[in-house]
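Need tokens for this chain, all 290 residues.
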Amino acid sequence: MPTFTALTTLEGRKPAYALGDAMERLVPEPTGVGVFEMEDGSGLWEVGGYFEESPDETALAVLAASMGAKEFVVSELPETDWVAHVRRELSPVEAGRFFVYGSHDADKVPEGCEPLLIEAAMAFGTGHHGTTLGCLRALDRLANGGMVGRNVADIGCGTAVLAMAAARIWPNPVLASDIDEVAVDVARANAAANNLTDRLICVEAAGFDHPELASRAPFDLVFANILKGPLVALAPDMAEALAPEGYAILSGILNEQADDVVEVYAQSGINLVNREVIGDWTTLTVQKMP
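Here are the structure tokens for all 290 residues:
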């Protein structure tokens, strides 16, 4: 069955998001809408919709004109094996000592690295996104500085790539949790694929709200690669869950949001140690005051 995309560009974040919101109300409605700042320095934003049936091009033209956007370009997409396509496009990622790869690149794993197998079908947490990459680099920095994590948790673990990275280099089992049941199943499957089943404890939980997390606290390292809103809400619980001088690696933060997150965590006695910017995303390493 053919599918369709409709893409346009315009200037300014606010108009772009307004156009994206308006696209959600089209008939036929798109199955997804994306709004992205173009990284070419032009100041333009791209707005696009994905449709399972041919979109109303007249309605799109009216929307574009009313928002000051260029005319939408509508394209029909051929049927594609997207997993196979992603496998071709998704090259391995190196982040310090860690090497994240799909099974199709198993022959490229270099000697002396810490390999982490994440299949291409696992969309978020392959290491290619700036947030995951930033967290892996932050972990590598802490380990290079002599830290040995004996009690580590990955909150909002997704594929559990961060929990597995910690389990690769440190002696004790790592606790991986996610609010989504499917993510927890994915975490367990990835642990098995990486021969880490006995090194990861995977639980379904919102934040730190789980008996396993409560019984294992305080932690000397917590990963929280989620989003600004949940991170801000999590700050008081993070302060309770971290051991004195314990670290947290925080990501899922747009660059313009980072100062707000730093301030909220400082108010909870957790201060900034390192900040890394990768594209649009910032990763923060913070430490609880003794």
